[in-house]
Write a structure and sequence with these properties.
Belongs to the sulfotransferase 1 family. GO terms for molecular function: sulfotransferase activity. Its EC number is 2.8.2.-. This is Sulfotransferase. There is one protein chain. The protein has 352 residues and is α/β, with parallel strands linked by helices. It has one domain: P-loop containing nucleotide triphosphate hydrolases (Rossmann fold, 3-Layer(aba) Sandwich), CATH 3.40.50.300. The chain is built from 16 helices and nine strands. Helix 1 packs antiparallel against helix 2. The longest helix has 19 residues. The two termini are 39 Å apart.
């Protein structure tokens, strides 16, 4: 049975109330239980850490992702008005965060002085599992006004069981796994500690094909959300990265409508859709000073340069890295994993 960790937010509040000694004792006890629990789980070679840990069918980093998932499962309280952006890593998360933040807050900010001009998308929309891990959270989730816009890499079945009961809405984005592999390989090597040798493309490829990467197996992550979207299309919107790149204005309108904030006739006349797309375009975000020189603090130990979130943002970049043999094997795995699900690579499925 997974341990129920003490919430970092509770620890922080108790420290402010001069009750740190009691909470600190509970905190240390919880982490001893946690560390003992981690030792019982299967291990494999990690991408940014020595090892990843398999928990309830998915591979997670023990020092951040696993701890975050457990804290979310035991302490996060969803609201019926919450909007979740769920993704497997390197599937268009940064772009989706920017688009949704700009769309949902379009009446609050002027485009000439927008928060995205001075803050990276990951500082505007927090990952719940990351936020829960911080002793001093960037934003206290309980204090955020509704509707809260939140993000998660967490697999669907590992989210709190109350998510459907509470009526939250969720947007998921799927990307060609060949591009996911290449993008993940580049990104994770930038985060990999110097004491660990960089992962070669061949090593990364084998791990990915075996289903070993962050929040993986990739196909299981995708299929859980895909099947949930078929069961609850009014609550879960399933998108493809390639379709969004091909017709961004069409899918931005769908996103706005899905979260209950469709663009009005007046907004269409004023070109608000195009303004959001320009603001959130890969080229514009990448060239902003904050995304050239700024950093995003994931945890006290993990700090990411904002520029590392903006490599190419293209579709089909895998062709520059994978051999025909690698491509064929990965496509075969994908075909077998998605078989009979109704989900395929390429354009438009039932709800696209």
């Amino acid at each position: 049975m997974a341990p129920s960790l003490v919430s970092p937010q509770c620890y922080y509040i108790s420290k402010r109330n001069n009750e740190a000694s009691v909470s600190e004792e509970a905190w240390e006890k919880a982490y001893q239980i946690y560390n003992d629990f981690v030792q019982t789980l299967p291990k494999a070679k990690g991408w940014t850490t020595q090892n990843v840990i398999k928990y309830q069918g998915f591979w997670l980093t023990p020092t951040s992702a696993l701890k975050g998932v457990l804290l979310v499962q035991h302490h996060f309280k969803p609201r019926p008005t919450d909007i979740f952006l769920a993704t497997s890593p390197k599937c268009g998360t940064t772009w989706l965060k920017a688009l949704m933040f700009a769309t949902m807050n379009r009446s609050s900010y002027d485009f000439s002085s927008h928060p995205l001009l001075k803050n990276g998308p990951h500082d505007c929309v927090t990952f719940i599992e990351v936020n829960m891990c911080q002793d001093y959270p960037i934003m206290n989730l309980e204090l955020l006004l509704s509707p809260r816009l939140l993000a998660a890499h967490i697999p669907y079945d590992l989210l709190p069981v109350t998510k459907t009961t509470f009526g939250c809405k969720l947007v998921y984005i799927f990307r060609d796994p060949k591009d996911v592999l290449v993008s993940t390989w580049h990104f994770m090597n930038k985060l990999r500690p110097k004491k660990l040798q960089p992962l070669s493309l061949g090593e990364a490829y084998e791990l990915f094909c075996e289903g070993i990467s962050h929040y993986a197996p990739f196909w299981d992550h995708v299929l859980e959300y895909w099947k949930a979207s078929l069961e609850s299309p009014d609550k879960i919107l399933f998108l493809k990265y390639e379709d969004m790149k091909r017709e961004p204005s069409v899918h931005l309108r769908r996103l706005a409508e899905f979260v209950g904030q469709p663009f009005s006739f007046e907004e269409e006349e004023k070109g608000v859709v195009q303004k959001i797309l320009r603001l959130c375009s890969f080229e514009n975000l990448r060239n902003l000073k904050v995304n050239k020189t700024g950093v995003h603090r994931v945890t006290d130990e993990i700090v990411v340069n904002n520029c590392d979130f903006f490599r190419k943002g293209q579709t089909g970049d895998w062709e520059n890295y994978l051999t025909d043999e690698m491509k064929q094997r990965l496509d075969f795995i994908t075909e077998q994993k998605l078989k009979n699900s109704g989900l395929t690579l390429g354009s438009s499925n039932r709800n696209l």
